[in-house]
Amino acid sequence: MITSEANTDSTSGSGLAICLQKTNRVKIIALIMAFFWYLPLAGKEIAITPAPNPITPEKNCFDIDEILLVPNVSSLVAGVKKTFLFLSPILATYSHQCLDKEKITHLLNALKLASLKKGYITTEFGITPQDLRSKQLIITLQTTIVGAIEVQGKQAGWLWGKDYAINIGDILSIKPIERGLYNFKRLKTNQPVVEILPMPASLPDKPQESKISIENPQPALPIYASISADNAGSLSTGIYQTSLQFGLENLLSLAESFHTYAVFTPDMSQAHSIYVSSDFSIPWRRFLLSVSGSYAHYAQKLSIGQKTFSYNGYGANLDIKGSVLVYLDNLNSLNFNFGLGKRWAQNYLENIALIVQNRNLTNIYANINYSRYIKNASISVSIGVKQGVKWLGSMKNFPNNNVKSAPNFFYTLPTIDVYTSVPLRLWDQNFAYSGFVKTQISRTHLYASEKFGLGGIYSVRGFDSSVLSGEIGVLNRNDWTYYLPSVFKLTFVPSLGLDMGYTSGIDRSRNDGLEDSGFIIGSAAGVKIYWSKYFNAQIWGYAPLYNPHNLKGRYFYASVGANWE
To answer: What torsion, rounded to 10 degrees, do the Cα atoms 563, 296, 301, 473 define?
Structure first.
């Protein structure tokens, strides 16, 4: 028995076991036992009966003008012709030339490798005794078909086809199974296991059959929840805040996910803020549909002259998104994402509505996301664009939009983001590096809500939230982590961070006292603490390293939380 990663080329004559590890939580184990017989394979003796005079003594090869791919059972002729059409370029490459034993061996190896890359792990190629006087080479293909599909002890119903694009009677390939499991890997409470098992030998003129069996174990209550408290809030609305999170997954066996999140400041009587968001997503084979919405309310004290006023308001978002899995293998994935978004906002000074701060906007966006896995490391690149549009009741620009420097609701906003994660094993110790670069470039004047902001614990650490903002921005964050050995399920994870960012505004004639251009660098050092999967805490110290504008700083962050799943 041979164990190999998905899509490798390892096979054996008597048995084959394939273990596919897609993520930390989603696995597929394909067990294919007792292959009934194998055709002569590449590297073994190839039995060919030549024509009376196909070659001369000086020419130790066979003139071949045509190469045919023929299944070992007649009932698969149509299926093989359609399914293995991707092998035609390989067959054409070896046609119209003189083939010796070495070239024929290379041909069989090329066919096998191409089939494995497409997921046809039970397909073999060989040569049977034949007469080559017609200058025609016949390659025999032996494969298996799906004879049965079983889901948790029951025959698969219509829900099977929602995620897995393979049915009874199809030629067996692991690719549709991999893509189906991809829909479950984003779930926290679900870990499907797939087995591919041989079925009893069929009649001689029938293809060998295999059974696909899926176990989809999940807890009786497929939910997860968490609560935490920290000091990550804004200085203007209160730094102490509480967060609640709740998720419900796969309740309908559709790989669907519902998630809601809330964060609020405990003291709601003075300056405060509250933010609530929810999202729902459901996949259908290669397509993922998601709907998300959020609502935020805030209030703070604003000093104007000798008086203090209450400045308050709300904002709401609604997004409908689609994601198409364009390509997937064990090393690469490519997604195309698109969506439609709505934005509403209203601000007040005491009870007076600030008309110029009203928002009712619509935007569309699209991006391409490519991920590459290199051993245990990964890199992801996203290139996208967001465009403001005059749809769904979107408000018009304000009258001063004729002024060249006035903001524009109908902006074009390109973005490029890169994310990396590199786990390391050095001196028998576990380390990790993670980092990202986010960019935004717009030649359109933007309102504050669309600008690129810097500062805060999720941006450049060591600075207060949004100390810099502009139409053009770059943010780079880096974290180096050391995972100390666990003791009684208690793990300490010391970390170091280095962040930097730059923003630039288009309008150089601003006189509102806000910075829209500059470069800042911040640092962080802290420790994360985990007890099993139920408890977590963080303590960080921050410091600005480069602060030429003397921007407001933040120097300490702490949080404590509990999880359940």
So the answer is: 90
